Amino acid sequence: MLKISTAPHINSPQDTRSIMRDVIIALMPALAAALLFFGLSALVVVLTAVAGCVAFEYLVCRYILKIPPTTGDLSAVVTGLLLAYNLPSNMPVWMVLVGCFVAVVIAKTAFGGLGKNVFNPALVGRVFLFISFPVQMTSWPKPDFLNFLNADVETGATTLGILKHIDAESSATKLAGGLSDLPDYGQMFIGYTGGCIGEVSALALLLGFAWLLWRRIIGWHIPFYYLATVFIFTSVMWLHSGNIQVEPVTQLLSGGLLLGAIFMATDYVTTPMTRKGQIVFAVGCGILTVIIRRWSVYPEGVSFAILIMNAFVPIIDYFTVPRVFGTGRK
Amino acid sequence: MSNKKTFTMGGIHPDKHKITAEKPIEDAGLPEIVYIPVKQHIGSPAKILVAKGDKVRVGTLLADADGIVSADVHSSVSGEVLKVEEIEGEFGYLEQMITIKVEGDEWEASIDRSPDIIREINASPEEIIAKIREAGIVGMGGAGYPTPVKTTIPAGKKVDCLIVNGIECEPYLTADDRLMVEKAEQIIIGAKILNKALGIQNAVIAVDENKPAAIEALRNITRSYVGVNVQVMKTKYPQGAEKQLIEAVTGREVPSGKLPADVGCIVQNVGTVNAVYEAVQKNKPLFERVVTVSGDAAETPSNFLVRIGTPASFLINKVHGSPDKIGKIIFGGPMMGTSAVNINAPITKLSSGILLFKDDISFKPEETVCIRCGKCVEACPVGLMPFAIAAQVRDGDYHEMKKLHVLDCIECGSCAYICPARIPLLDYCKLGKYELKKSK
Amino acid sequence: MSALIISNVLILAGIALIAAVVLYVVSQKFKVEENPKIAEIEALLPGVNCGACGKAGCHAFAEACAKSSAEEFKNLFCTAGGQEVMNKVAARLGYVAAAREPTVAVLKCNGTCQNAPDKVIYTGMKSCRMAARISVGRSGCPNGCLRFGDCVRACPFGAISLDETTGIPVVDENKCTSCGACVRTCPRGLYEIRPKGKNGVRVYVACSNTQKGALARKNCKAACIACLKCTKICPEIRVENNLSYIPPTVSAEEFGKRLAEACPTGAIAYTGEKTSTEVKNEQ
Fold it and tell me: Phi and psi at residue B131, in whole multiples of 5°?
């Protein structure tokens, strides 16, 4: 029998599942870096988070919503990976699962599932854990190259934590002592520094970014404007005050900025639809990140900045409607 | 080259599949029976002049244009009129058609069948338009707007630019491409004829950069013609859409709800321009056209010179498409073409291609949820927000639909092509337009 | 410490008080005086804003009722609410409601999956209105039901459902208020609002095909072939455009069974007792 259908009769090779698969591939270099620096405990957290997110989504679809499970689109895997990347590698498994529950059940399916959630699920999970279990969430194992079994790993602060510490104690001697703990640019770039699983290695994240760009999954706009805003904002402050805390290169390479800018501020669902809107969103994220890092009690502000801007997405979308061809141009 | 142009808003890059680009135009030959619809254009159907049993020759007028927006229909074969009645068309709806049994190949004596190219343009502008009307020429790119109406500029408007549309941005189709390669000079003379009719000096032939042979062929000849230039365009879909092409070539934007003539432009498809040449210089009415028959279920895809009214099944046999392998038959390109219900539906003046798809790509994928990726907004060449239109159409909110400019949609299908969630966004836009027009 | 608590409580209470005063003043100042009858009438209406009465919604209808004179009121009728609601509204206003016969929507097509089997496979958006645009429909009948249920989605009362075996929509006459949403939605115009008939007994032609008999039969076994047999039973029945039409004035009780039994294709639907052919088919 002949088939009939409405035009167009062909589709782009990209579908939701292939996009999610590409994001997962883009996240793999960061996982490799985490394995090298934090050992198998990182893998445990990552696998727990992925399994937890997929399982929660499956269970909710199957037994609460009673719809065919949507786990096939792989979005739960991405949520799990991103959540794990935002956690320290020594996070207890049960806490990871609590994070998965909050991310998938509360932040995603309760809003109506993929495409309807207002806030980035992985970030909601992370912030929930961050506020609920501040001790576990702020003691990061120091990187220990190729020590897979994690024997006798010390914990320490992240680069941003050290900087915040300096701020709190203004005496000159202590400042010098704190500074010696700071990693150099090279260490920060390859990821030999304390921090969450997926955020430490700028190199690995940039590799992932290159993959996403090459596969045309995301545009360069959001990461570029986000990072540029942070860079310019901190540069102005640095040049003005000479304060080591806002030294722009360290600000770019440290904390979850790259992970957030490349993978979380570009999440389709929770960011604006139009180019113009995306730029507004990215600049807003950048300004909020610096403000939170500099003036709040928290050393890191990427998650909060993105979540706050997520809330503004409907308003941004409302004001950045594209111009329709043949109207309004003189 | 630095001076390649393209339109600014949106656009997509579907896989080209131009597998027949190297295939010369073959004469498809004569089928046993042709079905000639009396409405192959926008406007009122033509008035039928023949009756059952009449003998006709190639080029005999079968039906006369009824009103200004209408077009003459000529016989494409010689033979006997079998019946004049409603027959199932492409979509299965009944359409008024003239069925002719083919006997021999006798042409009307007035048609100049010699292969010589006539370069001298002797006809006056009025004569040119009259000849175009008598030849029943309509926009052969797919719109089917009668060409004489388009060439008559409304009072108070000034046209300064003729754009010959050789873009052919739809995947698979190569009919216009081959026509430009093989009939380059005819097209250029046709453009000069239209220039004369419009009273202007310049014509631009816009060709996508992915047709190097056509560009080469046209460039070789434009050297000896003043005022006709070839403009190479950066390949992007839907460049061949009238308003997008005008913007790409001239930078002028046709205001919403206005016509190209409002910004001083006239766009004609290369097929139409070739038909104009043949009508004015050779006295030949529009009764045959180049059709690409392609797709993955076609064994020997090719470009054919086909008599209007030839059943699609005749061409399908020519490319050895076996009926059990064909999942879908598309009239036109894969982006905007229509899938046919009836395998015997005739080729019309507007059929630029017939695509045969195998079963596996004939099914439309299931619609899933919108992931708000914004790709449809990015792809829309008109700057619409298809995802938002879809949401309003689902809710039936006409007021909001209007605010979203759904009536400006050119139905190019870019949004539905690009959507990773496989939402039939174009269907929603079309439904929105339909509902909006109905509610008025 | 306690001072802190008290001051906090006082501040909050103060804010609440100020807000309450502002809200009260504003609501009084901008209050729109409305005929209290309107609200009372609106409470009696079904409240689905179906628009079948010709007004913009239930509120607009209530307004029109409240304003109307006894004579004007006779022209107002809430289709969805029916006689019962209109009697209540009339009682409230002290008028008499016009008596109208209860009506119901009927589908003038019997192109079931069995009578009019699929000839092509339609893939894509499941919408009758889209399917009608790109093709004659999967059964091949240019006037028949497309079986994608746009009417099901359009019905504000949930009275229409697609029958799983036949594929065509079924109207639940107890839920149908004859608001006309299906009439407006169906791209083929297959719905007609007809009197419910005594005891729900109706007779009508369940076909809309205007093709000649042979063509119509090619696509659908239950097509009206304009054989004129029905016109011989009841001269009121008209056949135009190769299609028979039974006016609502034809008594279903008197002619219904005979008409249904006489129709050679079964295009005449009769909702009364089973016809002999139906009984035979079931056996």
Answer: -65, -40
